[in-house]
Amino acid sequence: MKAMSLPRWTTVDYNALSWHDATVYGLGLSQFDPSNGTANLALDIDFIVRWHRIQHRLEFDVAQAKLVFHGVFDLSMQLDYAVMSAGMSAFTLDGIERTAVTRRHGAPSFRWLLRVNWPSGRIEFEADGFTQEALTPPKRLASQTLPAADRIRPVI
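Now predict its structure.
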């Protein structure tokens, strides 16, 4: 039996993707490069592959995915659970925006802004680009998040 191929996206797919309401379960830094002060930033997310309007309700094709930004520099993060009087939980993205920039040494790059809509906050940085891999097949749900039993081990 042939293994099912799971979706994989890169920076060139940016305009075709939306991270609205993607749930973030973890984030981490890896592959530190002391020569230029960069690292990779990885996020363990529930990615909404497709939204479906069915009469007067929505359904979602959701897959666990690993989103990795490469060559991250100038990282700034703010997550404010206190102002919302919120208990600790996974947070959700409003979306991901990017702006083309030129790095100090002249190389082209992007300024990325990940707006957080729950609780409130943002993650902002420069990075060369991203890769995102689905870790599970998309599952049709009435919810925007996978049940815990459908998520594989934490990936961060």
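DSSP finds no helices and nine strands in the chain.
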